[in-house]
Amino acid sequence: MALEFMGIDPGTNDGNCPAAWVDQKTADLVFQGWKADEETEEECRADSPRPDHEAVVRVPARMIPIIRKACDEAERRAQFL
Fold first, then answer.
1. What is the SS3 string spanning the chain?
2. pLDDT tens digits, residue range 6-58?
């Protein structure tokens, strides 16, 4: 897998999280974020059961420009798959 780094949360103090990447081969989006709390997990399960191999993560709204950049790049790459 070859991931292209799109950016990290501009509000992070320690440079660890959250972050976004685009898989250069599949155009999949990859997110690192905060593990969702149980209340969020429950609300998400009500709409979409979550299998054990999936996770619910939360990323801050201030990352919208980075996520938009990642979506644009993924869409561009997907045209060539």
1. CCEEEEEECCCCCCCCCCEEEEECCCCCEEEECEECCHHHHHHHHHHCCCCCCCCCEECCHHHHHHHHHHHHHHHHHHCCC
2. 999 998 887 678 999 999 999 999 999 999 999 999 999 999 999 999 999 99
